[in-house]
Amino acid sequence: MNPPQHASSLADQFLHDLHWVIESPSLINSAPVIPPLSLDAIDPDHLTSVMVDPQSRHVGSHRVGYYFERLVLYWLVHLRRVEVVAHGMQIKDDKRTLGEIDFLFRDEAGRLTHWEVSVKFYLYHPQHALSGPLSGPLGGSHFLGPNARDTFERKMGRLFEHQLPLSQTHLPDVEVRQAWVQGQIFYHRQLGSVQLLPAQMSPDHLRGAYLYQREINELQHHANSRFQVLDKPYWLAGPMFNAADPNWCSGPEMADTLHQHFKETDRPLMLCQADSESVQSESLPNESTETRLKRRPNTKRIFVVADSWPLTDSLS
Questions:
Q1: For residue range 91-136, what is the model confidence (pLDDT) as tens digits?
Q2: Separation of alpha carbons 227 and 236, rounded Å
Q3: pLDDT at position 296, please?
Q4: Which residue range forms the structural domain that includes residue 127?
Q5: Is residue 311 part of a domain?
Q6: Which helix (H) or strand (E) holds 7?
Q7: Is 1 within the bounds of a domain?
Q8: Which Pfam family, giving just one, matches this sequence (predicted)?
Q9: Using CA atoms, how far apart are residues 33 and 108, in angstroms rounded to an integer?
Q10: DSSP state of 249
Q11: Which of 26, 109, 229, 307 could disulfide-link 31, Cβ–Cβ 3.0 to 4.6 Å?
């Protein structure tokens, strides 16, 4: 998915992604209580100007995490209107950097709050065990990132054992410490249901599917679906369906695109699939962004990985 160029399309995408950030279910159990998003309070032109401001932190970055942070920052500053004391604040001990605090803000009750925020995408891979070729740094998890060195348990350990305790040690005035993690877990149809989730993973998490390179031709059987490759950083809500958008293609066309991709690289790709119901519910003339967001199309997410995954060193 190429980033939308027209100002109104860009605003729609940012609003769509902001809605996803605030309203989608948490990936973890210990999520903070999030006030609902009021779409009426958002000025699309202002949101667009802030997100493309060249002075903004990490502007232009293709990293999904940076994009996610910028949307959270907009929500805190311009919608919740809380006092953001720091964003991306480095904690140092003498000349050594110990880590970085994502957000330090005073909430509506005046409590100094430390938030660590993250958006993550993991694939369920139950064959991955404590022994064998993936032991060592990859051992102990059945939930692997597109870069298999990134696991759900490793991320949770980093969040709760290192990042959040930074404020406890170095900022004693902090009253609230919380992790806010959004994202999605992808499952392969042949692997069955999850027998046991990690202790910190919410059972209500968003779910998608994944395919191996050798299974790409299965997409050709979805005659009534349209597909689009999602480019970073637009992995959050995905695109609104538009029949005139050339980025959407048929199943056979997408299969051809994927075959060519994996001839050149092992890099995983994320797809968005719009089914026949979504195809029939494209935007109407003069329809407001709020109406479109409330009538979100029925889309699915699919990760496509190389046959060598997770033994590949490909980065997500």
A1: 988 888 899 999 999 999 999 999 999 999 999 998 654 334 444 4
A2: 16
A3: 56
A4: 7-305
A5: no
A6: helix 7-23
A7: no
A8: DUF1853
A9: 13
A10: B
A11: 26
- DSSP string of 18-73? HHHHHHSPPSBTTPPPPPPP-GGG--HHHHHHHHT-TTSTTTT---HHHHHHHHHH
The pLDDT, as a whole number, for residue 294 is: 56
> Phi and psi at residue 310, in whole multiples of 5°?
-95, 15
Distances (CA, A) of 145 to 275, 278, 296: 26, 28, 27
Q: At what angle do helices 64-74 and 44-51 cross, to 10 degrees?
A: 140
Q: Is residue 146 part of a domain?
A: yes
Question: Which among 59, 112, 43 is positioned nearest to 84, based on CA atoms?
Answer: 112
CB 167, CB 101: distance < 8 Å: yes
Residues 152, 217 contacting (CB under 8 angstroms): no
CA distances from 292 to 48, 105, 277, 297 (A): 18, 32, 14, 8
Which residues of the chain have a pLDDT value below 50? 1-2, 129-137, 280, 314-316
Separation between Cα atoms, residue 286 and residue 267, nearest integer Å: 39
Q: Is residue 289 part of a domain?
A: yes
Amino acid identity, residue 138?
A: L
Overall number of domains in the chain:
1
Side-chain half-sphere CA neighbours of 200 within 13 A: 18
* Max CA pair span of the chain: 62
- How far apart, in whole angstroms, are the C-alpha atoms of residue 297 and residue 277? 8
